[in-house]
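Data deposition worksheet. Section B asks for the primary sequence of the deposited chain exactly as it was used as input, without tags or linkers unless they were present during the calculation. Section C holds the resulting structure in token form. Section D is free text for depositor observations; keep each observation to a single sentence. Incomplete worksheets are returned to the depositor.
Section A, Depositor: J.P.
Section B:
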Amino acid sequence: MTTAPPTRAIHVGRQPVYDRFGDVVGYELLFRSSADAVSATSRNAFATSQVIVSAFTEFGLGQLVGDRPCFVNLTREFLVGDLPVPFDPGQTVLEVLETVTVDDKVYAGVRDLVERGYTIALDDFRLDETGVRLLPMATYVKLDMVDNDTETLTSTVGRLRGQPGLTLVAERIESEERLALAFELGFELFQGHVLGRAHVISGRGLSPSAIRRLDLLTTLTANEIDLRKVVALVTTDPALSFRLLRATNSAASGLRQKVGSIRDAIVLLGLHRVREWVALMVVSDVSEATEDQLAAVLIRARLCQTVAEHLDLPPESGFTVGLLSGVADLIDQSIAEVAHHLPLTADVAAALIRGEGRLGEVLATVHSYERVDLGALGQAPVDSGELAQAYLSALGWSTQTLTSLGDNRRIS
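Section C:
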């Protein structure tokens, strides 16, 4: 089986947007291929997919931008519906790139997004047929302070002032002189190197399985969706499980309920929204491969599930506790930090953060077994012989899962 590291580096560029008082009032999220990248190497659908998946399901939108608006560039594929916008309307501003040709299909797609409640920004706006056509649907209009001369900027701003409800953003401000001009022309918002360069936020994310993504996407597009199969496919993929839990907690999801299992997260998000996220992850993770290094996480999750069931606790909650503790180890974060960004029920959160409650006892038992802590195992609520049998069963299940992925890859 071809293997890959269990984690991968993730990067998102974040450039601040300022108001006339010099306060940061929002951020633009940008594709960056590395921690030291100073500009985007790509502005295609792959780049946009990476930004969206990383921002919402790896870092968490709250961690990146707090409660401020964020601007996300969209390519044609997202505007016309070939790729989904998988988050609800909220603090995210959808930015139509200047490279998009505004034909009838793009116009209809943008109109549909506005009717669904999304906020639209027009990037690098120009007073031509293409720009003017989308103007009535825009809330923000961004003008390039480098490529436009003073006469063009003055004329364009004058024309835009006749359009009600517009917020004008001066972008690519790279000198004090252009900043002064932007203030003189009456722009409301400001963005550019003279104020603040894009800062690359980096972290570690789980390497996903492209094969399982495709399998799950096929299941989600069937005429009759089998929820049990969807849950089974998600729970055997730690990366996807973690991302969907994060998606339920994103500021734009509109959900305020807590979840105690992966199944709860899928039901709360809804199969349609899960399908959109998975479709986007297939694009975002196109270069990633499967790996058997995730076996330890799967074994721990399965073992916690079995112990929870033995103690008459919800087995799904046991699986989630084991899964997330393993994910925290893989991405080198404290379990408290991981749990803080997830919409977990009180008993699951207490077990993970403080080791409290009966689920905390489940996790402690499994940790003791993994460390071969005979003293602690002597006080465990499950007999050591039963634990050994449960471990072998979990080992067999994880091996079968990973082998199946390897077989699928060889067939494909």
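Section D:
The CA atoms of residues 79 and 131 lie 15 Å apart.
The first helix runs from residue 45 to 59.
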